[in-house]
From TrEMBL:
Residue stretches making up the Gfo/Idh/MocA-like oxidoreductase N-terminal domain: 3-118
All residue ranges annotated as the GFO/IDH/MocA-like oxidoreductase domain in the record: 156-216
Protein name: Gfo/Idh/MocA family oxidoreductase
Organism of provenance: Gilvirhabdus luticola
SUPFAM superfamilies reported in the protein's UniProt record: Glyceraldehyde-3-phosphate dehydrogenase-like, C-terminal domain, NAD(P)-binding Rossmann-fold domains
Phylogenetic lineage: Bacteria, Pseudomonadati, Bacteroidota, Flavobacteriia, Flavobacteriales
């Protein structure tokens, strides 16, 4: 079993601690949090071993799980890599693209593994349809959340929209050609609601909306491609696949047939796969353990995390 340690024991850090402690792939060694009051409270409540410093924790483990505020990701990752430790970093990978690129270079030089916590890649609704998403030409995403002071230290693009940026980059096999966006600060000092349009070299267009001041939560993505429409509800963990094929010469009474202006007839049918049940955070952590143990490429690489941050940064720069 891989010896794992967690840096950061906030809301998400406590979830990682619990899941690593449950996992059959890891042995949870302990954690460190610079907030000494919170750290001691977590240690007392759950019985996890509390380390006195980042350095002590890193020395005691094989894998460092970085769940600290984004501003500290870079320094934590550098220290872990310097000691030859594998790193799992929550999204966004770092605060700047330059920091992310440096971490990526250090990782390659030291021949160790790194993964970024873009957890929606492990959402069962997305897993159920990702192989059916083939050359989408229009994508629409809505990620809306009720206001929560936690996370408002960064723009909504880095807080919420970056999930959808990563999903889109994972299915569109083309370079981003143009980025345009607008954002509004309503409650926070940084934008709380934003809309972005990504244009790709292959002609695909993605329209993304993210808000953290909505009255209800929503996480939906729609993919449109030749002869198919695919919808993924990341929140409800549901998906819908609507496909079209050439209509039969003699359609049945209940067949759904459409005819365009040119007289071409298409049959509409539903191809909805079963959506499994899983814990996406546990799955992403254990998939990283598999990559380490088998010396394979992690599902969400540091390169993936860097590119998602690069696009997010381009979007944020549009606000200035």
């Amino acid at each position: 079993m891989l010896k794992a340690g967690v840096l950061g024991a906030g809301h998400l850090g406590k979830i990682h601690l619990r899941l690593l402690n449950q996992s059959n792939q890891y042995k949870l060694v302990g954690f460190y949090d610079q907030d000494t009051v919170n750290a001691q409270k977590v240690a007392d409540e759950f019985g996890y071993t509390l380390f006195n410093s980042v350095e002590e924790l890193i020395d005691a483990v094989d894998m460092v799980d970085i769940v600290t505020p984004t501003l500290s990701h870079y320094e934590c990752a550098k220290q872990a890599i310097a000691k030859g430790k594998h790193i799992f970093i929550e999204k966004p990978i770092t605060n700047t693209v330059e920091e992310a690129e440096h971490i990526r270079e250090l990782l390659a030089e030291n021949n160790i593994r790194g993964q970024v916590g873009h957890v929606e890649r492990f959402n069962p609704a997305f897993i159920a349809v990702k192989d059916k998403v083939e050359n989408p030409m229009f994508i629409e995403t809505h990620r809306l959340a009720e206001f929560n002071p936690r996370g408002t230290d960064v723009p909504v693009v880095l807080d919420l929209m970056i999930h959808d940026i990563d999903i889109i980059l994972s299915v569109v096999k083309s370079e981003v050609k143009n980025v345009s966006a607008s954002g509004v600060s309503v409650i926070s000092d940084t934008p709380d609601i934003a809309n972005a349009r990504l244009e790709f070299e292959n002609g695909c267009v993605a329209n993304l909306t993210a808000s953290r001041i909505s009255l209800k939560n929503m996480r939906k993505t729609r993919f449109f491609q030749r002869d198919a429409y695919i919808s993924v509800d990341f929140l409800e963990k549901k998906c819908e696949v609507v496909k079209m094929k050439d209509a039969p010469e003699h359609p049945g009474d209940f067949d759904m047939i459409l005819q365009n202006a040119e007289g071409i007839k298409k049959q509409i049918y539903f191809d909805n796969p079963n959506v499994g049940s899983n814990n996406a955070i546990l799955d992403e952590l254990e998939s990283f353990a598999n990559a380490i143990n088998n010396n394979t490429t992690p599902i969400v690489t540091l390169n993936d995390g860097t590119e998602a941050l690069r696009v997010a940064t381009q979007i944020i720069n549009c606000f200035k």
